Batch of 2 targets.
Target 1
Amino acid sequence: MLAKRGIEPDVLVEPTFGRGSFLVSALANFGGLKKIFGVEIFEPYFWQSKFAILEYFLKNPREKKPETRLFLSDVFTFKFKSIEKEMDAGDRVLVLGNPPVGDKHGTKRIEF
């Protein structure tokens, strides 16, 4: 949907990537991505996402492979300034994801 609207980021930040669905979808839809950064607190999802990305590239070997950094960390304490230093001036950054609702895996819960 975003790609159809002409949104073409250089950098993707996914602060709560879960099983990696948005990460893989971004790879499939944003061919100009240079870098991907993701944060996930639940270790099984962290590994599942890594394998989903690997599977995507095994099925699509000619696709551009952006630098991808995934962090096993809590989004509430992660130091986002650390990844900001790895971006270039003028990079178009897209922050994409669902808000963490927590509790399912012993994570914090956000009340809306």
Note: The domain at 9-95 is CATH 3.40.50.150 (Rossmann fold).
Target 2
Amino acid sequence: MASKIEAAVTAVKPGSLCNACVVAAGSDLNIIRSILGSDSLHGTKGTLFVTPGTELEKQVIADIDSQEENGDVSDEARKAAVAARDEARKLQALPHQSRQNILRAVQDQPKKEIW
């Protein structure tokens, strides 16, 4: 791991043609999707290295500060989304007739009881 970090730091040193480098686990088959995609789909993975003093570094610092300010909401939303996805998978595993019965039962309930 130390050699990966050393290579990343060398790659983004001032004067280099590379402004950013990500170090990530090669054993994760979804790592590229995780790095390039939405956090909500794959989670945050990898470590970003940027050239010191660049606009990209300023943007990254601003993004981190923004996440820290709103971290509780984001974490809460992420947990709710994961829970909803898990429950949706359980519903998908049920036979069609069972799912249909559940949806009809929910539909028949007054909104004040559900919410």
Note: The chain has a mean pLDDT of 78.
